[in-house]
Design goal:
Blueprint: E1 14-22, E2 28-33, E3 43-45, H1 52-64, E4 73-79, E5 89-98, E6 112-118, H2 120-123, H3 129-142, E7 148-150
Parallel strand pairs: 1-5, 4-7
Antiparallel strand pairs: 1-3, 2-6, 4-5
Length: about 160
């Protein structure tokens, strides 16, 4: 394919890797970052030279002080540019297993306001619709065999 002069073939994309972590009762761990009002799974941006799995493990350790091993990919979510973001985003949501009830959580100073293990019904009102769709799909994919792809349906 020939590109017109001056048109770049590279589109910057923000890549995010999050963790679905459950407790022994099957509740999911959500965090409330200090920089936004809604709740999200722990995780964050993939840095240069990292795989999404490495970024997921690093971000979880930084945010809540818990070591995880990202296992199976549960969801890939594509978000095109939007009035709130200048570039498209792709989210990877990994199954990071269960943690014991007595897991020691240490919140990142200045980045995470609080965290809690919540049922999906408790969690949904605290999340944006997009995050809620991602987490709901991840919970379904956790019991299935294939990851879920979520094309953006938000306007």
């Amino acid at each position: 394919m020939t590109r017109p002069a001056g048109v770049s073939s590279i589109t910057p994309v923000t890549v995010v890797a999050d963790a679905l972590i459950a407790d022994q009762q099957g509740r999911i761990l959500l965090t409330q970052p200090t920089y936004r009002p809604d709740w999200v799974p722990p995780g964050g941006d993939v840095e240069a030279g990292e795989t999404p799995e490495q970024a997921c493990a690093r971000e979880v350790a930084e945010e809540i002080g818990v070591r995880v091993v990202p296992a199976r990919l549960l969801v890939v979510d594509w978000l095109p540019t939007h009035r709130y973001r200048a570039e498209p985003m792709v989210y990877f949501l990994f199954d990071c297993g269960q943690v014991p009830d007595d897991v020691a959580i240490r919140l990142a100073n200045g980045e995470v306001r609080e965290c809690a293990f919540l049922s999906l019904a408790q969690a949904l009102p605290l999340m944006t619709p997009g995050t809620g769709a991602r987490v709901t799909a991840a919970m379904r994919a956790r019991t299935g065999v294939a990851p879920t792809y979520l094309p953006d349906t938000r306007e």
